[in-house]
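Hello forum,

I keep getting stuck at the same step: I have a sequence, I want structure tokens, and every attempt I make locally crashes halfway through. Rather than fight my setup again tonight, could one of you with a working pipeline run this one for me? It's a single chain of 290 residues.
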Amino acid sequence: MSYILVLIAGVSWGLIGIFTKAIDALGFTEMQMLFVKGVLATALLFLIIFLKDRSQLKLKNWKDIRYFVGTGICSFTFFSWAYMKAINLTSLGVAAVLLYTAPTFVMLFSILLFHEKMTKVKGVVLGMTFLGCVLVTGLLEGGGAFTWQGILIGLGSGIGYALYSIFGTYAIKAGYGSLSISFYTFLMATIFMVFCVEPVAVLRQITTMGQWPLAISFSLLTTVVPYLCYTKGLSGLPASQASVTATIEPVVAAILGIVVFHESASFLKIAGIILVLSSVVVMNKQGTKS
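Reply #2:
Ran it on my machine without issues. Output:
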């Protein structure tokens, strides 16, 4: 069941690109729509917890707030902003593959911070990821829909994405359930984003343009559903295996980019997608053996 939940999360996250394109066309910034997502997600989760089990609203220890600052600000806010920005600066397929450099960043952090050994397999994984990113961005094809800013921001989304599994796992070990983790993640993110946008102006603009159905759908399908499913899945799977299962996301995003937005699908770009996804699988197998 855990695999199915993570799979649902990956598919849901893969829909972000469609909403991002629609939102950008309406003139909203990435941070403005993230703020709306955060508000709606926090309100909905509060209602669910209030009706289901109010005890999940309590922190076991005030020091635990650091885990949710990690999942909410360092991960959700940064990763979501960077991913949406990368989609607008590059393409759905490119941004999605750059996002899935996350497991490689986890490996690098482990080597630098936790003094894990650099093995041949890890070296191969790094090489596969690097080559895959080069191929998918179109650098070897003399151009493509990318900018260096877009590539760097896309890689940043991978770092932010990696942090959710790390902080989320700490929160689970501290005894928090998926509802509690998701609620405090969005609460921390929303509090932070209040200082990044003009809340009243954003809400008034959405009302004036009659875009609440889009905002609510965006929040439910790409935030509430996937985060609940992924966090619940983490409770039954190691973080590394969960990240591998969720690699359906870039595949969904790439397919949508090609079918819906007519993005290019050259042989080299497809090869790049396969390389990045394969590197995640190889690293996971190595992790399960160690």
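Residues 148-173 form the longest helix (26 residues). If your local run keeps crashing, start a new thread with the error log.
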